[in-house]
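Objective 1b: paired records.
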Amino acid sequence: MKYKQFIAELEAGKITSVYLFEGEEGYLKEEALKNLKKRIISPEYKEFNYERFSGANISASQIIESANTFPLQAKKRLVVVEEVDKLSDEDQRALGRYLDNPVGTTCLVCTGEKLDKRKRLYKTFLEKGKVVSFYPLWEGEVMAWIKGKIEKEGKRISSQALLYFKDRVGNDLRELNNEIEKLVLYTHPKRVIEKEDVEEAVGEGKGMGVFDLTRAVREKALSRALFILCRLLEKGEEPLRIHSLVTREMRILLKIKEKEGKISSQEACSVIFRPKSYYSQFYTNIAAEYIQAVRKFSLSQLVTAFKYLVETEASIKTGREEPAIAIERMILGILQG
């Protein structure tokens, strides 16, 4: 069985008592385990119903003891054994005997890169459970995987941008996932990602994007903000786009400030990003930065910032002031008062 088939069965609610995750693609294995864990384990009972071991430093008797433990306030426990191929031959035989009659209230997942398919343990996994194979994706599969990841975030990516992104980042799924998260964050609130966005986020323009400016603003780093602003305007960035993203940044800071001391990183994520049921550590780390950054502003400073934002927009749209000068004055006003 391949990863896609496993995910399809999981979404249909089909969970077996024994799995073997084999192959070299570690990132997809981690994704599969996360999905399985979400289906089985309630966070409040995680410490009772979830255990993870390494075959390099555990015996089969310990694994079996854990697998035989009944779940607390749940239908199943999840027991994960990494590097099962590092168990001794004796322990592999003992584990194989457990697999002949696995406990129905436990989902046992064993992982390993290269298991000897001639051994009884592997054959027992095939007979009594399910073997899921995780191997590097083909070129076309990688492209589809990138596209799917971006679409799950509520965005689309143009064909040109997709090809450029893949060419710049490569085939490593872990690295691709990290860069996708950055790209999605950088392009918010745009719905369609174009090649120019990829160039700014991960290409030649990396490090001098509007995202860097908004970060400098929330960190109250005036000299850095002015330097990045100058570079952005030199490259032809639209002043009104800069204005809209700084406005969004100040709105986020104000909302977090209103709940200062009473907001968690997960809650802050729903203010900063598109609402969803769960945010990965990448997002919660950024949310924690916002919670920390908001302490540098008083509530009155954030409220006053909107005066500068409104005045700047009117100044640009009426032609009363050069856009570049108006935006620079706005940044100075927000950060210096």
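Objective 1b, second protein:
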Amino acid sequence: MSTPLHDDTLRGQVAIVTGAGRGLGRGGAVGLARRGATVIAVALEADELARTALLAPNGRIVEVALDLGESGAVDGLVDRVLADHGHVDVLINTAAMLPFETFQDTTPELWHRVLQVNLHACYQLAWRLYPAMVERGAGVISSVSSGAGVRPFILETAYVAGKYALEGLMKSLALEALPHGVAVTLTTPGAPSKPTGMTDAEFQALGDDARARYADELDVAEGFAWIAGQVDVALNGRRLDLHGLGALVRARGWGLTTHEALQRVERSS
């Protein structure tokens, strides 16, 4: 992997990144921190958040161990961040659950928990933060979708339903945000990524060949960081390949234009 890119474009900005303890969320948190942002890194496992913090510039990651599936978790998080930091400039939603169950075994309890984490938490965070972004005339809201957001899969009924709904939510919000200077985007991994539910310990327990099947989680760092630094609402409602975008930013630098990004790494599937 090439030398990571750093600059201070996001210095003074506050970002919330959910699912930041592993995978794409870890890459997003580290990427934004490398550009100078104070990153509120949210995840279920405190030990995984600590690993994320070690990979980022010192002092840029604020670790928050939190279960987004719990009632009141989102409001408590936002209240805490606003009390401590006063504002939020960037929201990156990556947290997700992917239980592999038949429809018959997808109980109401499981259904509601998956939708809470994968969809409702994204809505609640955006709903709390969007009005202040509109008032400032700037802000970024970006959510990770997947192939399951545009096509069905067996044994993933709840996950697919949530991702389809997330696509609609973000694309509709993107239209409303256009006149207010708030960039609202979707992303998709674009390369084989470590399964959502696989912990760091489980990943390390795999054999070398099995681990090699998955892309490095930090390959997406520059992609997320580039999105966080954009103010061009031409991105609104677009769906970008994260691994492809990361590689493109490393090749072109932070000056990568919206036009080239859309031409090269916009994805519809």
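The radius of gyration is 17 Å. The beta strands are 14-18, 38-43, 61-65, 90-93, 139-144, 182-188, 239-241.
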